[in-house]
């Protein structure tokens, strides 16, 4: 159980195919240990690393996912062909993220318990996975040195924020949000300790416009065996800035935004939320700690509690950002914001002093019923064109930002 104000009990088990599942409980009788969530998984699933039997009866070792190096960009590209068959928009009766129904025959859901607070488990269709016995070695496609390949030996996890399929992270309340933060910090620390992992990314995709294939409130946690392009670019910029000034770039960005105040949308004792000066998306906001912190595990207990409140304020404001127009049958009703929200953390080993923890939340929705499409300039050349200005985005965030969190049932 974690120390401090957050009382969260962590209980780990294994699913039928060998994947890890972890309950993070903040409610009784589970948080005290007086009771335990269901730990066995009765599904008749084969071990995920067992040999694969072909149609002719021949057994062959399971194929490890691969990633290939793009020499034109310097980026690793995982090849996850098996994800073509992953679960896609299941019915309520077959939702794999919902808790098991009491008294019902066990379906192919991922969570054995009939209720949970927050739960994390290894993805059944991972983009990155370390297969036992497969060495993390560089080979060359077709024997050509221009085309290095490696096993995509990382880890992908799913985090369920609520047992309510119709809920959202914005509606879980401050206590449960605090538990989510504990889970993020726990997974960042533990995944970062795995051999070969270079960085950990906790993120949430929300809404059909984003491409979500499961509408249950959940996020994901990726442990990459390489530095992602975004992180590598920020690290390069941060190092160049330190060479010129001797200062931390992300610290200077936060201080400049606070001095200006023009794009600051919310502040608390330990955190600030602002629209970045060069925001790309039609809706975007960053949330950063006032103290220099490399990652989520480094946050103090007061910083985590303060973050739970501020982050919920941001999420709830996002769901008020757009409303249906007057000529709509739903005129004036708020539109739930489709978004991607991800935690930028310092890598496990490289750049610990140069990069700084911050959240980026953005949406492709630019107006009710209208999306920001990545057309030729953005998709083909990576040359961004914004449809608005950061100042207009910030003005709207301030218009919809409440002073406090709306708790469940209020």
Automatic annotation (TrEMBL):
SUPFAM superfamilies: HIT-like. It catalyses: alpha-D-galactose 1-phosphate + UDP-alpha-D-glucose = alpha-D-glucose 1-phosphate + UDP-alpha-D-galactose. Pathway: Carbohydrate metabolism; galactose metabolism. One of its GO terms (cellular component) is cytoplasm. Pfam families: GalP_UDP_tr_C, GalP_UDP_transf. The active site is at residue 218. Keywords: Carbohydrate metabolism, Galactose metabolism, Metal-binding, Nucleotidyltransferase, Transferase, Zinc. Its EC number is 2.7.7.12. Residues 64-227 form the Galactose-1-phosphate uridyl transferase N-terminal domain. One of its GO terms (biological process) is galactose catabolic process via UDP-galactose, Leloir pathway. Signal peptide: none annotated. InterPro entries: GalP_UDPtransf1 (IPR001937), GalP_UDPtransf1_His-AS (IPR019779), GalP_Utransf_C (IPR005850), GalP_Utransf_N (IPR005849), HIT-like_sf (IPR036265). Residues 240-360 form the Galactose-1-phosphate uridyl transferase C-terminal domain. It is an enzyme of class 2 (transferase). GO terms for molecular function: UDP-glucose:hexose-1-phosphate uridylyltransferase activity; zinc ion binding. Its cofactor is Zn(2+). Belongs to the galactose-1-phosphate uridylyltransferase type 1 family. This is Galactose-1-phosphate uridylyltransferase.
